[in-house]
Amino acid sequence: MKTINVGILGLGTVGAGVVKLLLENQSLIISRVGACLNLKKAADIDVRKEKELSLPKGVFVNNAGLVVNDPEIDIIVEMIGGEKLAGDLILKAIENNKPVVTANKALLARHGNALVKASEKQKVDLMFEASVGGAMPIIKTIRESLVGNQIKSVSGILNGTCNYILSKISDNGTSFEDALAEAQASGCAEADPGLDVNGLDTAHKLAIVTALAYGMKINFDDIYIEGITNITPLDIQFAAQFGYRIKLMAISKNLGHAIEARVHPTMIPFENILSNVNGTLNAVTITGDEVGEILLSGLGAGMMPTASAVVGDIVDLARNIMANTRARIPLLAHQPGQIRAIPILPIDKIITHYYFRFAALDRPGVLSTISGILGNYGISLKSVHQKGRKSSGSVPLIMLTHRALEADVISALKEISALEVIQETP
Amino acid sequence: MKTINVGILGLGTVGAGVVKLLLENQSLIISRVGACLNLKKAADIDVRKEKELSLPKGVFVNNAGLVVNDPEIDIIVEMIGGEKLAGDLILKAIENNKPVVTANKALLARHGNALVKASEKQKVDLMFEASVGGAMPIIKTIRESLVGNQIKSVSGILNGTCNYILSKISDNGTSFEDALAEAQASGCAEADPGLDVNGLDTAHKLAIVTALAYGMKINFDDIYIEGITNITPLDIQFAAQFGYRIKLMAISKNLGHAIEARVHPTMIPFENILSNVNGTLNAVTITGDEVGEILLSGLGAGMMPTASAVVGDIVDLARNIMANTRARIPLLAHQPGQIRAIPILPIDKIITHYYFRFAALDRPGVLSTISGILGNYGISLKSVHQKGRKSSGSVPLIMLTHRALEADVISALKEISALEVIQETP
Predict the structure, then answer these.
(1) A356 pairs with which residues across the strands?
(2) How high is the ipTM of this complex?
(3) What's the pTM?
């Protein structure tokens, strides 16, 4: 039987998961590929990993260069994370004619175009299913299953940490801070949760799927990003009263002349299946002109779900090797010459529905003043909710709008914020 | 640019959809494949199809043999349906070294092993994503994305007609007959709905995914099948009272030594996302040992969703042709030599929870007699619900059990049915 040699760079959580999976499910993988996927070398700067992962003798090295330059290694798996070192090693592997698997969404979002260009020049495959949505085969579905469709939109919940925190606030009425602490204690949030809760991680993933879906270059910089740090239990409670659950959504839409691509907390109606995707689960809906809406859901992160996606990519490359082919599918889902420069619409050009919460002094005429200002900007209201009168201090005034232009909303909120009766930033 | 010639057999609903998609989205497909997918010939016995579908001159033929024997045609798309003719034409195409795409689940369920054998012998690809779950990429997910996983179970809602009917009964309290008539009027049930409502269509699909998931031959004959024709609004109403929705489920589980594979109405708890998959939507959950549970949902049938899946397969084959390769992925997801004969457990060996509805005369001691018989067979009760006393006639007595063996349930029901106080078959 043919042996295909795999080299892994980085033995953190996911890298260790890939090692575990390749070793434990080896016979299963042989039955699917018809070849043996042999873990030839695994590199990490931490030499304790060799023992921790019970690596077979001779596999561990503490120099990634020994892996990407090993002429016997057929497939390189980059699991280091970060941008500079990981990117350089991927480029070196490509230069050495070795196909690469990575789950590095930050790298792809920020430097993916250069990596794709290098891969295409060398006709070497670069696979990254595990970079978006962990277990869910989002990239394969867009690149392979929906090829007959003009893709209209890709939207979903792409960060398990944020979804866990929002679910906790929703279920238990805890504060953002307490829910985050709980997420950290349970291991589903990093010690430094910045990338997650400020929406950056979600935006990295959105940049990747947006490029694949519409045939454009990866454009992370123009994505609007708003995280979940300002969400209060009160917001979630009011949303529920109106029949909505708040989720951190990644939203992208193909408007033809331009793309909408944004990450922000979003109110999802109870009857929408996404509102029931809770805890660390992720979910994505992809809408094609022919196929309608498809939903994929599953664990979006974690050691083994992510490792499973990485191994799926390794097997795809191994099947290419067995079939004596390469570069069978264009990396960005469209032929290189067909990738267009479609602009992402600035956020103030977006038209959508809005939820406002004002902390207003409970005085006569407040509602009329606020709704008057909104009306002046052409923003009409769908629902209004005002809590009962308090003897002193502010009361929450909640409004849901019909479709309105973000630029108008920004102007109106600025004017309303300046009112003497408004006690906090809306 | 290279041209890849496609020949279609059968211009019914899905065949016409494939023609439409290939013609309308041609430039989109070119941008993804880097080749032109040219509809060279399309065959149907109904000569009016040429005009109806505005086929380009010279494409229509009324003899399928002219398509499968055309030496210039690279890919054959079988959209005839039925077993004998479709099967013979597929075998002829394979013999002529032409890869084939089909959506014919009945053919695959009953004669798939022979077709797979012929394809493997000739090293010709046979693709059938559209045979299961329409728009949802179930087969690609099992064959390609989850290759690193031991698949534990595949379960779901695989028939849109049944799901539409059950949703109607649930939402409007209409009878099965009225809901069926409504489904037929709205075009989402065939004039002859037998294959759908008796569970056969679901079982065809389950036979296919079960084989792929666990590395076994296609075994349709041993699947237990129960349709939805006996479901009453009363059942759905009681299920709702207990917190469940009734769905026609295809269930398969890998027990290691044997497989469970069954199709029957199933009570799904409200908190399970599948209970919210309504109308003509389908959904499937796939559980892998590493990946956990993945959910796919989308339109399971219909002209364009199914055509989209067919075109996905055509493009996969076209990419093989462009990459100068074939038979890259084993047809049944595992290498031919690794396909095992794993038995499907007879239904009376299944252990699960049960829902009973008895029409019992409202006499003292009835509950005690019935629960006594169940107890004698080791069947313990989780919930019991008895409607208020009627002056005459029977009252519904509803019971939910803990896990019990089907064989014991059958024996107990036989004994209970014989009681004088029981008015209908339970």
Answers:
(1) A399
(2) 0.94
(3) 0.95
